[in-house]
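Can't paste images in this forum, so I'm doing it all in text. The chain is below; anyone willing to post the predicted structure tokens underneath?
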Amino acid sequence: MRSTLSTAEARRIALAAQGFARPRPAAVTTRQLNSAIRRMGTLQIDSVNVFARSHYMPLFSRLGVYDPADLDRLLFARRAPYVEYWAHVAAFIPAADWALFRFRMDDNRAKYGTDPDGWFRRHSDIVDWVRGELAERGPLRPAQLEHDAQRSSRRGPWWDWDVVKNALEYLWLFGEVAIAGRQGFERRYALAEQVIPAAVLDSVIPRPDAIRELVARASAAYGVATASDLADYWRLRDRPAVHRAIAELQDAGVLQPVTVAGWTSAGRPAKAWLHRDAVLPRRVDAAALLTPFDPMVWFRDRAERLFDFAYRIEIYTPAPRRRYGYYSLPVLLGDDVVGRVDLKADRARSTLLVQSAWWEHGRPADAAERLATEVRTAAAWQRLESISVSRWGDAADDVAAALPEAERHDSRPDVSEAAPATGAAGDAPANVDG
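Text version of the structure:
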């Protein structure tokens, strides 16, 4: 492959690496779900459920309609092949990759678990009690522990839900505890040895080796990337270690340095690297709605470089100040992001609400029809019987015209959703910055 790439070529390489150059299968099986997850390496978790929880969306974007229960069985079944950890942020990873993040567990313990005046050491009594309960009783939801902690108040200080939950979260960040599935969307916590295979749990991967492997996987998942891209994929904050890993992978022939037209850093061409397995399709003709936490757009700087797409999620923005809507989804058509739609599932009325729709630059002539097809597919996937399109956004009338069966509703909906109480990680202790 050449040592220089146009932005359009870099886009096609990146889309192919993420699976968007492939046609959607006629029927989605567990094999396809596993293959898509393997290609991405991780699924970010987010608690917002205005349309669909974020970890379901990347599979829909790549594969089309599938049964979410099939993914639930992969993620939440007893001895599931996937487990949650702080990978990108809170995310699902293959259980076999647990040891790759041992260095992060050790860093978290050093940062939050050793200070005599820190939360963890000051609450050692509740931490020890939680450990004992999990050892004796196996996987538990926080609510189950909360109830027992209240009953135990006669024997000691009263422990409320927050301290129980924080104890569980710190133990999870330190790798002592793992998530044994969820009930509803509430985590079930267990000692790591009750969830992670012994061979994986006992595996020791030195920090440099783990970082090098994660950088290699990020490069494969991105196709072409800058050092910042590669660091962000797994939120690797040790930039010298990332650069050492890149150098070693380049020496090994895994990475090839390239220059991408338009990618700059401090006014100069940005350094970038191409994975040896990356492919450059002659054409990519994708059509997908992306979650804000899809690897294609989760690093906003990269999304702007690839697609000239300035993207900020507005769930934390007060409703009157939102420009595009509460939970706008980037619209991928062809090989470019050409719009955004704010979707909401009105379960009570079995209706998919298009709360707003907007065009970006460079949309193809058939953009409205193709976007309408994706909206119909999204409604079918969520088992919603009807669609209603608002009049808010410069694409709203186009989309409505391409959906003659759809109803219309107020031009700017009364957005009543409150911003989530926590960030994208959802469940991390309040004093943990990830």
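The chain has 16 helices and 17 strands. The radius of gyration is 23 Å.
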